[in-house]
Q: What sequence folds into this?
């Protein structure tokens, strides 16, 4: 067992965990960051990997490379079987235990299949680099199979940002496969949601924009219809109908990582840990929860901040600040979120964003610029060369899609220029 004297255990090396560890390391506080992967994964670009527009290695950065300049951070690549908040400890799957002066749960989320029969077995979630790579390989496999009618048809479940962005990217991919003569008939993309609008969190203008852009890209949008079951070759709908498809992408909702559920306190909504305004877990001194693993009070009417990259990054950093205050014997401060707005990129030349205090709606290049600014900031915690990302992103947004989407296995890369030794170990097991 490692010592506890002023060592912070951070469970999870996503946006929240990395921001927390980095801030603590800047003040030379010893940190042990534990993640089951040896790399950080940038979720907002997973659909680009799934649709063959970016290689998986471009959205995964090894934790050791991120913390190369920070000797105070020890990275442990291991599955955490249990978090024991009362003891500020972590039990690893190999039986090792770690304990610290503080523990920060930044374990993120996993898909919520809502108990729908066959969904966990047959649908493709999009939460990790491995998920995205599995979906890409599955589609490439279908592309190689003989031209059976409908073999490439895809159903995307969920009309939130993940479902909309994925449906847009896949519709674009099918268009390119069609234009370049790789398929006799491109797959049909159908997005299904039981609600009555796409991008439910956005304004009605954005709902219409998303539906129009998806339809223009060749996708079909079916609202007011829920999924009753997922079979290997079809989706059954709750109105008694069905859609034949060998590929079902799950963008239907999320639950906190299972480790959050057994950490000690009764889990709150979405299986997440309820935290106080200062991000501490009530009744568990020295324990914090941040990012997608936490219900973080927004201060208005009992609401909580949404599961967004900027909330994760800011809450991770804020928890670090409160730990630093604690180490100096100062009182913790309530989390103050700087709202960066909400946005979705629906494909080349199509983006929608709601920004500013009143969530003013913008579309097209202006929305894309807002998307780029926020994503650059998110990436800056993990990469020093964010200019490479900006170049890639403008190129993606602007250029003729056939020129940049590779139907083969060599999509255009972000010029990270990383050392070969920094390559993540992406396993699909
Ligand atoms: C497809 C998709 C697209 C998105 N697009 C956007 C977007 O455009 N803009 C935006 O702001 N937000 C977006 N989000 C949301 C955003 O990515 C998340 O809110 C954010 O990444 C959460 O960060 P986190 O650090 O809390 O969790 P994560 O980034 O999920 O990190 C959690 C880490 O914990 C590790 N972990 C979990 N359990 C264990 C365990 N038991 N043992 C060891 N390690 C463990 C995981 O491996 C992971 O590295 C998107 C999310 C998804 C899924």
A:
């Amino acid at each position: 067992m490692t010592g506890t004297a002023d060592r912070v255990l951070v469970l999870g090396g996503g946006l929240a965990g990395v921001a927390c560890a980095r801030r603590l390391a800047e003040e030379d506080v010893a940190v042990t960051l534990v993640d089951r992967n040896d790399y950080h994964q940038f979720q907002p670009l997973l659909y680009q990997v799934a649709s063959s527009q970016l290689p998986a290695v471009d959205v995964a950065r090894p934790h050791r490379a991120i913390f190369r300049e920070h000797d105070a951070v020890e990275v442990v690549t291991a599955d955490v079987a249990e978090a024991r908040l009362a003891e500020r400890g972590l039990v690893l799957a190999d039986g090792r235990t770690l304990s610290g002066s503080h523990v920060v749960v930044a374990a993120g989320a996993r898909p919520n299949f809502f108990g729908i029969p066959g969904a966990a077995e047959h649908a493709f979630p999009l939460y990790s680099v491995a998920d995205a790579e599995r979906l890409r390989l599955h589609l490439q496999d279908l592309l190689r199979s003989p031209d059976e009618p409908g073999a490439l048809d895809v159903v995307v479940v969920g009309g939130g940002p993940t479902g909309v962005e994925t449906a847009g990217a896949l519709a674009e991919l099918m268009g390119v496969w069609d234009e370049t003569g790789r398929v006799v008939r491109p797959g049909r993309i159908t997005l299904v949601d039981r609600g009555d609008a796409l991008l439910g969190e956005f304004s009605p203008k954005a709902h219409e924009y998303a539906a129009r852009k998806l339809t223009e890209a060749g996708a079909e949008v079916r609202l007011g219809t829920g999924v009753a079951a997922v079979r290997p070759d079809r989706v059954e709908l709750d109105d008694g109908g069905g859609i034949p498809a060998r590929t079902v992408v799950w963008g239907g909702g999320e639950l906190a990582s299972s480790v959050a559920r057994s950490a000690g306190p009764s889990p709150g909504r979405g299986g997440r840990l309820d935290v106080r305004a200062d991000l501490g877990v009530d009744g568990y001194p020295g324990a914090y929860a941040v990012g997608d693993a936490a219900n973080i009070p927004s201060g208005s009417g009992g609401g909580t901040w949404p599961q967004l990259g900027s909330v994760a990054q800011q809450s991770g950093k804020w928890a670090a600040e409160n730990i630093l205050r604690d180490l100096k014997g100062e009182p913790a401060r309530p989390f103050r979120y700087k709202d960066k707005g909400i946005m979705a990129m629906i494909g080349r030349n199509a983006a929608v964003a709601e920004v500013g205090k009143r969530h003013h709606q913008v579309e097209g290049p202006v929305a894309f610029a807002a998307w780029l600014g926020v994503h650059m900031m998110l990436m800056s915690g993990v990469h020093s060369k964010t200019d490479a990302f900006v170049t890639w992103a403008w190129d993606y947004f602007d250029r003729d899609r056939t020129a940049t989407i590779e139907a083969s296995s060599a999509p255009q890369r972000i010029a990270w220029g990383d050392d070969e030794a920094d390559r993540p170990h992406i396993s699909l097991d």
Q: What stands out?
A: The domain at 119-252+341-404 is CATH 3.50.50.100 (FAD/NAD(P)-binding domain). The longest strand covers residues 30-35.
